[in-house]
Amino acid sequence: MRRREKKREEERRREKKREEKRRKEKGKNGLEINFSMNMRSYLVWSSTPHWVFILLHLFTITNKYSSQVTMFCETCIDFFRTLGEASTESEFKSEDTFPITGLFEHHTTDDAFKRALDTGCILCKKLRENLSYEALDLDGDKLAAFRLVCSWYQTGPKSGFDVVCSVDGFTKTSHISLMPVNPPEDRLLLPDYHETTNTGTDACFALANHWLKTCLSSHQGCKHLRPSSLKAWTPSRLIRIRGVDDLVLCLRQMGSIPIGVEYATLSHCWGKIPATQRLVLTSKNVSSWTRGMPDLKIMKTFDHAIIICRKLGLEYIWIDSLCILEDSRDDWYQEASLMSTVYKYSKFTITATAAIDDTVGCFFDRDLNICLPTRVEFLKNQICFLGASKQSMTKSNIFLDDSRSTLLRGRYDIQEWSTWTQRISNAPVSKRSWVLQERLLSPRVLHFSDRQLFWECAKLQASESLPFGMPEDANAHFKTLSPCRYQGQYFTDLDFEGETLLQKHRHLEYASLTWKSAIITYTKGKLTKSSDKLAAISAIARELQPLMRCRYLAGLWESALVFRLARYSYTDSYPSMMYRAPSWSWASIDGSIMFHPWSTLESFDPLIEILKVVTDLVGGDEFGQVKGGHLKLLGQAIDFEIILDMAEHREIIHINGQPTILCLTKDDKNMGIGVSTKKFCCLPLYLNLSFPQGFSSLILERVDIDNEVYRRVGTLSTSYFLPEKIVTAFREDPILSIIGDIEKSKDGSLAFKRGSADLREVVIV
């Protein structure tokens, strides 16, 4: 009790000191403050040689400036004052600076946070914007628990604010950074650019043009020459922009597309627009469109893409739904096989990043205080808040204790740290599976999000906030445009004759890992047409084939087939309702796919022999759709049962009455529901004895009683053995002991000895 009373007394004393400080500050600044604090939240300081991070969660409080500019609430002002008056990094750890064990007190109720938003606190608005991506309903009923806790951290050379917001038990971290302004790379000094309240203005096009010209003139890694065999290649159809509202469809077969033409491509979401209302090319309107196309204004995405081309000086554009015959499967198969060439030889791709369908468009109104950085200047005795644009560079100041030597000096931009993830990676268009290959193969991508413009090429990832480049660790590290090219050239354009054996091996390893990463990313997306599962990634496969040097089999490469058969899913996954691929292919499943983490093919010891692989193609394209296929293997097929424990509603795997340590993953999450006992077959695939040791096998269900014909329904595996337990596991586990034995030598190395189980030929369909 005494400790609690003492702690309460200390908190009252600190609160009294803060109130006195606020009253003094009010007198200095001439601010009218409406302060409210019913809850607790905390902030923590971090700094690096180049960055100052504020990783925030939730804030609450309100303030009204007597001047015209309302910029920050009182709580945020207190925080900035603390930053401004700190003379050393160690002060941010002290209880005097952050009274509660190094934590900075902030808003502690949702009401206070809402009032801060209503009065226009820029920092709180930026935080609310981040939180809108999560399941937090700040506009609904009063929240039961609203808490913000921030703590100081240091990892290697970096330190920062690590802030965790808790709302009714749900936690979320928002990242807001103070980034020093480097005059040579000051976004506000770019020619012809200034912040505007819409993303479709001439100022925004000036920035896009700056990125494009810089890339074309100085990015050696983005320059690629067409091979001589493709010098005269053009898309089958292109839309020509002759003037405002004057568009025609040009056909290669009619000779109306110039050789070596420069064109843009469009990446977009069709959305849920009814088929009868979509604007698409068909065999019925193709002739009339060559004389003049219909008005595109009803489809804002198309209309805005045309405007962007005109502003950036391009006369031609390729849009899939307007350049591929929607009512001809033959034309679709033909054009799908050319998709990689269409995108990689375009000048750039326009992406309607935030548009959920084609009626939304590329241009959006925006609040500059939320969407773009706010500039702040730390001086010796004051902090100047300069606003979010050139037009709002009027100062609002808070005064500091000028007797102290301050740590922060100069101008900084307050901005979101995870902008790329929120606006690009999590955008509506990025949830569309087709987009992965469109981004991977395009030499340049211009993203129009609902908040700002973004640029992406092999050399640069940038935004309006950071037009000279995103920091490597600002969630923009996924270099989407490099895996399918080498030194500026696409793999399909290179001659690999004369390679050494080592070079071939390295290229195979690189291509295999690239494909694995592509599948993991691709399967997180959605398809309007389920039948497009293989077609929507075929362009990437086509580009990687020169390095793989083997057959492509319904989404898997023959040279790595054993190791990629063991894919699995942690999320809900189900076999496709319509046939798309054999059950052994990832393409047969709806849901995100994962692979075990081992990095190199040398890590694996295969436990099966592949005897035969057959795929039946829908058309003549080996990278396209399939209508059938089977895989014949020789291995140790082990029969086992999955027993449903009716009392605890959990599944127990039994081999001859004994449980196994292996983990079960299902291709169909509903497999076995309502069935007390079901028999399956376990087919060991491979063993990994290098660190981290692991094992994987397929679960098969018999589909032909008279023959050894099965379909895949899941996996039994472990991705990690404790080094001291692996020998014991292979001796005692009912499945592993049948497969073989692990022997450990005196030097600690491991060797596998195959067991006595009979080998059986099995066919998987």
From TrEMBL:
What keywords would UniProt list here? Membrane, Transmembrane, Transmembrane helix
Give the transmembrane region(s). Answer: 42-61
What InterPro entries does UniProt report for this protein, alphabetically?
HET
Region of interest (Disordered), ranges: 1-26
Annotated protein name in UniProt: Heterokaryon incompatibility domain-containing protein
Bias (Basic residues) ranges: 14-26
**Matching PANTHER family:** DOMAIN PROTEIN, PUTATIVE-RELATED, HETEROKARYON INCOMPATIBILITY DOMAIN-CONTAINING PROTEIN
Q: Residues in domain Heterokaryon incompatibility? A: 263-438
